[in-house]
Prior knowledge:
Helices cover about 30% and strands about 25% of the residues. By secondary structure, it is α/β, with parallel strands linked by helices. The chain has two domains: about 1-85 and about 165-258, P-loop containing nucleotide triphosphate hydrolases (Rossmann fold); about 90-165, no CATH class. The strands form two sheets. Strands 6-7-8-3-9-10 form a six-stranded mixed β-sheet, with helices on both faces. A four-stranded antiparallel β-sheet has the order 2-1-4-5, covered by helices on one side. This is NitT/TauT family transport system ATP-binding protein.
Amino acid sequence: MNAPFGHAPSAARIDVHGLAKTYPGPGGGVLAIKNVDLFVEAGEFVTILGPSGCGKSSLLNILAGFEQATGGTALIGGREIHGPRHGQGVVFQDTAALFPWLSVHDNVAFGLMNTRLTRRERDAKVRAALATVGLEQFSGSWPHQLSGGMRQLASIARVLVTESRVLLMDEPFAALDALTRQQMQQKLLHIWQATGVSIVLITHSVDEAIYLGNRVYILTRRPAEVAAELSVDLPYPREVTDSAFNRLKSIALKTLGL
């Protein structure tokens, strides 16, 4: 499978410079992120790796516009992020994020309800998004009838249908069993290939970070700083038993102090 990096004119570049985040608290507050610099080229797949509680989710929430940085800048498509906006799609770890009272079709269509699209145009976009993630046969199903992996695919379709330029993923497969997680990683790569969207995925799995990313940013323990940036110059699909893969894994583990 060839990576689509560089072939998606609708994808957006991400730039982060000197980013910092302090949460209020006694004694001056809690510094979660300290002076983070990183970038994501338009159409690139970047993974952010770090130990639990290091500030990865805080970083993603700032990119999504859910939280404000207390220092530095974060830009998507050259525009500074001041809040959620069209073109920034987020997929969370929670596989129960879908509305249980709506069908899969209506869950995916939800983000289009306040647009000027006709019902026929909305339905066409939903069908295309479900086909991209491989759920076209489950359009009429209810969320409780889907497996955990399928619910995450529906969440991804809900982002894709709005033609997001950036897909931000907060440990989306952490709650899945090992086999389903591996299958979902493969599906995500196919979705990326089909759409060319810029992807940022945070994880605490070294294998997942290297298996998916063009590049891997490794963060320190809190407060999060960039400890290393790994370029993963390996063709897709990747073999976790490959010697080059394991050389990168060894570097990542040493950087994390493991």
